[in-house]
Design goal:
This protein has 233 residues and is of the alpha/beta class. It has two domains: 119 residues, 3-Layer(aba) Sandwich (Rossmann fold); 97 residues, Thrombin, subunit H. It contains six helices and twelve strands. The strands form two sheets. A six-stranded antiparallel β-barrel has the order 7-8-9-12-11-10. The protein is elongated and about 60 Å long.
Length: 233
Amino acid sequence: MSQQPVRILLVDDVRVFRELERTFLQRSAYEIFTAASGTEALEKALRVRPHLILLDCNMPGMDGFECCRRIKADPILKGVKVIMVTTHGREQDRERCLEAGCDDFLTKPVNRRAFLSSVEQTLSLTVRVSDRLAMSAKVHYTPGDGAGEPSVTANVSVGGVFILSEKPPAEGTPLHLRIDLPGLDSPIEVEGEVVWNTSEQQPKTAEGFGVKFTKIDLDTARLIERFVAARVE
């Protein structure tokens, strides 16, 4: 298991509320992401794997109640904590939040002290960490418009991979990856970004670079999740 930074996803169709919540958290060491709809929240949650989601109840299209139900029913996202934010604080809204499976709820206008207290208490329940499998798998990565490079992985998780390389790409380099996981009929293909490399680190244990997946479809994410879970003790 590998400890990761605590990531929080703020979801609200009104920009001013997203920015207000971000302001409340600006002095904290959390990594903050935002989404403006339930649909965007599901896509981004799968991509960034947040530990906590602050989810507005009343949004056009997919509302927060439905979004929360889908998060809690998804085999990959079900461990993510959800705090729902209601507009009126009515008893029926409270009941709908609980029925959707949320871990806590707040009422607008959001009070900073109550907001931070709920965030801290909810996060203290469990900080979910992704399993990381040490393994060698063939990988072909294409950086931006450059030529593709063959290599092998040192470890794999549903959130990313570490790739062995004597000349790792620079941090921030976008990649298209094709990974051959043993036992699968065809390679998996994802988009990623180099988030760190060993070129400046001493001493070096293995030269290479870490990649965070930035675009991965649901079926592929579930496939990797099952593959890793079946092999991690």
